[in-house]
Amino acid sequence: MIDDDPFAPVRKPPSLEAQLENASIGDLEARIEHLRGEIAQCERLIAAKRAQRAAAESVFGGQAS
Predict the structure, then answer these.
(1) Looking at the domain assignment, is residue 65 inside a domain?
(2) Phi-psi region of 48 (alpha: psi -120 to 50; beta: other; left: phi over 0)
């Protein structure tokens, strides 16, 4: 027997707002910690890219794009 009905309507996943509304306090706290980790990673990458740009500008002069 096939479980997947090819003619069944496709269900959209719940919106982020609905997911957050239904999440427990622990789940929300874990999500915040995960997002803080992603933000820290982005900040490190931005700093590294700025340093790389500054190094290129010091070698080649002018504004690197």
Answers:
(1) no
(2) alpha
